[in-house]
Amino acid sequence: MIRRLLVANRGEIARRVFATCRAMGVETVAVYSDSDADAPHVAEADYAVHLPGNAPAATYLRGDLIIAAARKCGADAVHPGYGFLSENAEFARAVVDAGLTWVGPSPKAIALMGSKIEAKALLADVGVPMLPTALEPEQVEAFPVLVKASAGGGGRGMRIVRDPESLPEAVAAARREAASAFGDGTVFCERYIERARHIEVQIMADSHGNVVTLGERECSIQRRHQKIVEETPSPAVDPQLRDRLCQAAIAAARAVSYVGAGTVEFLLAPSGEFFFLEMNTRLQVEHPVTECVVGVDLVRLQLVVAEGGSLPFNGPPPLRGHAIEVRLYAEDPAYAWMPSTGTLHRFDVPGVAHSFGPLPAPGLRLDSGVVDGSVVGVHYDPMLAKLIAWAPTRAEAARMLSNALARARFHGVTTNRDLLVRVLRHSAFLSGGTDTGFLDRHPEVFAPLLSSVDAVRLSCLAAALSGAARRAKRATLPGLPSGWRNVPSALQSVVYEGPTGTIEVGYRLDRLNDLAAWAVRRVDPEDVGLPGAALDPAGAPDHPPAEILSATGDQVVLDVAGVRLHFSVAAIGDVSYVDSPEGSVTLTELPRYPLPVSEQPEGSLIAPLPGAVGRVLVVPGQRVAAGELLLTVEAMKLEHPVHAPTDGVISDLRVAAGSQVESGALLAVLTPAL
Asked: Are 91 and 79 in contact (CB under 8 A)?
């Protein structure tokens, strides 16, 4: 029996495993890096051991330190979670050799499936369908192809290539990314199927010969080859196809004498053919949707199997209803999925029935790695949480999930929330018409939820009125509204930097503290703080009539043309986060008289986000062409390229490989060619 278990991971998956351990009476041990010292998973563990440093290579990828931590606090078992060392056969073997229980498949099975190249060769022999594969670039005979890393997962080390000219650089980039992420730069090329669906089968196997499938999941909606929406069952899979997929998954598991939880992934072509992709020898990120529709705790089954127990069923249990999961990331989809860092001041999802375990009844489940006040840094994956909806039908699950996301409050970092809501509400998604190219074919899902002109204007007005209420509370003459005048005067004016640019909002309150007039306009940022024409409500285009029903420092209620709207306003410094049924908007109040700032030289190339400079491919004086790769910045496990915006000469270079930079830091100066 496992008495004390160490989770060799962090964030959401560590909290997920701890939740099941508490329910089973198993003591828990966390490990943590410097930046994770105050992380929720550390606070929730019975014991915690520090791994000095921040970089994964110095902390969560150090198997020797993790095993030493287990010995130090008396742990007798190790759960790897997902990512990091979860599919590292050497680490699994070291855990076993240390006399600890390994919660996962055998090191041999991990090694066999850890190399996609070897796995494809092995499983082809037992009849699992395979795509044509080239081990070397020169062996590619037809395009398009997908360059893939042989080790690891999560979409890293993958590139789609549509012509021979692009292949060498794609292979080189994939090798670099794979070597950085997994310590193995081996890649191969595989035929790329247009409009394919990503279907995977969850398996559980024990040491007594039982191999059971727990239905399929569809994970076709992806960005950067990484899943962001997952569901079960798949709308594209009928009972006959499900049986064929499950039989192929069982054949793959039996071929390597698999024990534990695992996932066999397939591509489903429009023709109805399916092909093996890879086998993940661990618990998947998207395991909660399976837990909902099957009614089992997969982490509990992992522990039972690791202790030598048998599965509680001999065949696939029946599926109940439909479950959909979304991954909430700290990133901006509209700007090339740029990761976002900072303090998460507010993290609130309404209507959640349960966290970190199977739902007792249809509803919402939240598995989160963050809480209010968590700091999102540059060292780890930007996933914040997973939100899961389980309902009797697919349509109900999508509606429940999209409404909860739309009403959630995420303050402090940019997230992909609006994208997820638009995907879940899109007619093509609701009809089941999804495949791995969904986001490319539907750019409309990248629009923000708060898209109507009136919604933006009203959010700005709510922020201004909330600010006025806060100032009135601090006023030395109570009872008079902020900015109140005994005679008519110009509007009180506040200027915000918002999602659509610089916005000026003006308002005037009457003697009863009611809204006498208001107006909003877009302004040129260069005009902020300069004398100009007064904001004129009479000249404002189509402002809807609004009446203040109440206005406090954190809540504003307006009657807009007979419709009552509630606005929640959270002010952190000069930033206001405004949430309403119309959506969410972040507004930064600009100073009325801004201080002069030093301008960057013309042609400045700045860091897109904080991180470490990876490769530097240019030197001062070098001529470059528009679009040429100049350098890369590495953050959140990804390589972010910096390209030349135009032809020119590198007149200044401020960084070297390995330099740590903040967002907005000057990297280089490119003097455009004359």
From this structure: no
Q: How far is CA 329 from CA 143, 368, 388, 449, in A?
A: 32, 11, 14, 17
How high is the pLDDT of residue 487?
53
Q: What does the alpha-carbon distance between residue 540 and residue 537 come to, in Å, rounded to a whole number?
A: 5
CB 360 within 8 A of CB 354: yes
Strands of 77-79's sheet in order across: 47-50, 27-32, 4-7, 77-79, 101-102
Answer for the pair 200, 219: CB distance below 8 angstroms, yes or no. Answer: yes
Tokens representing 143?
Answer: 């395009």
CA angle 177, 182, 183 (to 5 degrees): 90
d(CA 529, CA 630): 37
The three state secondary structure string of 498-546 is ECCEEEEEEEEECCCCCEEEEEEEECCHHHCCCCCCCCCHHHCCCCCCE
> What does the pLDDT look like over 118-129, one tens digit per residue?
899 999 999 999
* Spatial CA neighbour of 549 closest among 469, 622, 630, 489: 469
Residue 494 CB neighbours (<10 A): 22
pLDDT of residue 530: 45
Tokens 């569809």: give the residue.
218
Task: Give the pLDDT score at 250.
Answer: 97
Using CA atoms, how far apart are residues 166 and 163, in angstroms rounded to an integer? 6
**489, 575 in Cβ contact below 8 A?**
no
Q: What does R_g of the chain's alpha carbons equal in angstroms?
A: 27
What burial letters (b/e) apply to 29-62, b meaning 16+ CB within 10 Å?
A: bbbbbebbeebbbbebbebbbbbebbebeebbbb
Mind listing the pLDDT tens digit for each residue in 625-659? 888 889 988 877 677 788 888 898 998 999 898 88
Identity of the amino acid at 268: L
pTM of the model: 0.89
- Per the structure block, which two tokens stand in for 428? 């093509």
Q: Tell me what pLDDT residue 163 has.
A: 92
- In sequence order, the β-bridge partners of residue 640 are 633
Q: Which residues contact 172 (CB under 8 A, 6 or more apart)?
A: none
Residues 6 or more apart whose CB falls under 8 angstroms from that of 287 comprise 202, 261, 298
Mean pLDDT over all residues of the chain?
Answer: 90
The single residue listed with the structure tokens 């044509």 is 132
Residues 6+ apart with CB under 8 A from 492: 464, 468, 482, 483, 506, 507, 508, 509
Measured between its terminal Cα atoms, the distance across the chain in Å is 74
Q: β-pairing, 363-368 with 352-354?
A: parallel
How is the chain split among helix, strand and coil, in percent rounded to 5?
25, 30, 40
8 A C-beta contact, residue 567 and residue 615 = no
List the structure tokens of 225.
């080859």
